[in-house]
Amino acid sequence: MAGTPGEMTIKFKGDKVRVDPAPQISMITDAKTGDTVTLIHGEKKAMRISGDKMKAAAEMVKKFAGATPAEQKSKLTPLGRKETVNGMPTDVFTTDTAVGKATYYIASNYPDGAAIMKEMKTAQPSALTNSGTNVPDFRDLPGVPVKIEMDTVRGHVIMTLVSVKRDPIPSSEFSVPADYTEMKMPDIFGGKNAPDNPAERVPALPRVVPMPSATP
pTM to 2 decimals? Predict the structure, then answer.
């Protein structure tokens, strides 16, 4: 299945992370609290969801997946081969996830790699770690992932790291613009806890870009 190529930008500053998966959407997350705000630029609107609700949603996904805590944690298995990606030598790993089989190309000698991974680990919201998809999070990676391939129900997906910049980022990049209006986030649980029975009906989530998985 052919997909549409796109570019996603991720910015880190302290405990804040901003993801721009498309020109019209940005998501800003506080890694300490898990609070997330989605900016819809075309409509100049902002929608907030608390870290507690994000965690509850993640727990609901785990219940639907029917996995035990041990099953929710996938492990990278080295394939014993090396490949060069964009001029960078990498070690190749594989893992099976709830999303599909994944192949990771990890550069252990990426320039300033230790500092880059430290920032990525710090900025990953703990409330969202392994939210039912059992995709390896930043803490599981032995180096910088410069390429990830994944076989999903929608086809073969390839994510490639284009560049890393260490330039200063203004704090305004992690704030809601003054001329944006707030949207109310629908209560997906209707004021109740996540259902214990996956067969129970759950109101549909709003159509916004989902929080990106732990992999870049």
Answer: 0.71
Residues of the domain holding 152: 9-183
Domain count, the chain: 1
On whether residue 86 sits in a domain, the answer given is yes
For the chain, strand residue ranges (E) read 9-13, 16-22, 25-30, 36-40, 45-49, 77-85, 88-96, 101-107, 144-152, 155-160, 181-183
Q: Two tokens at 13?
A: 């500053």
Residue keyed to tokens 């391939």: 149
* E strand map for 67-173: 77-85, 88-96, 101-107, 144-152, 155-160
Chain centroid to CA 96? 17
Per-residue pLDDT of the chain (216 residues; tens, 9 = 90+): 445 678 899 998 988 999 999 999 999 999 888 899 999 999 999 999 988 887 777 677 666 655 545 455 678 999 999 999 999 999 999 998 877 899 999 999 999 999 888 887 776 655 445 455 567 777 778 999 999 999 888 889 999 999 999 899 999 999 999 999 998 766 655 555 545 544 444 343 333 333 333 334
CA–CA separation, 79 and 104 (whole Å): 10
